[in-house]
Amino acid sequence: MNDDTPEQPEVHPKHLAYDRFGKEALLAAHDITEALAEAGVDDDGVVVLRTDGPRHNLADLERLIDEALAEDAEHPDEEREAP
User: Residue 17 in contact with residue 69, Cβ under 8 Å?
Assistant: First the structure.
């Protein structure tokens, strides 16, 4: 059997980390919403945005991802806790 599916290029670890960060943020938001619903709290549509703190940029996020990847490289056999 001949598979005509093109081979997928290797995904850069930073791209995987960006994806993982986004998925974990969405799951956290879902968990909060679910917990509020289970507690019987009505959805008032309020979103809290902290504006008095430091402004983070993409370079800060990239630095955090680099640090996490370095930790992964130092401890490759440790299991991660599911978000």
Answer: yes
- Whether residue 17 contacts residue 80, with contact meaning beta carbons closer than 8 Å, is answered with no
Q: Please, what is the end-to-end C-alpha distance for the chain in angstroms?
A: 40
Residue 59 vs residue 46, higher pLDDT: 59
Joined tokens for residue 17? 């980390």
CA separation for the pair 17, 72 (Å, rounded): 11
Determine the pLDDT at residue 15.
80
Residues 25, 76 contacting (CB under 8 angstroms)? no
pTM of whole model > 0.85?
no
Secondary structure string (H, E, C) spanning the chain? CCCCCCCCCCCCHHHHHHHHHHHHHHHHHHHHHHHHHHCCCCCCCCCCCCCCCCCCCHHHHHHHHHHHHHHHHHCCCCCCCCC
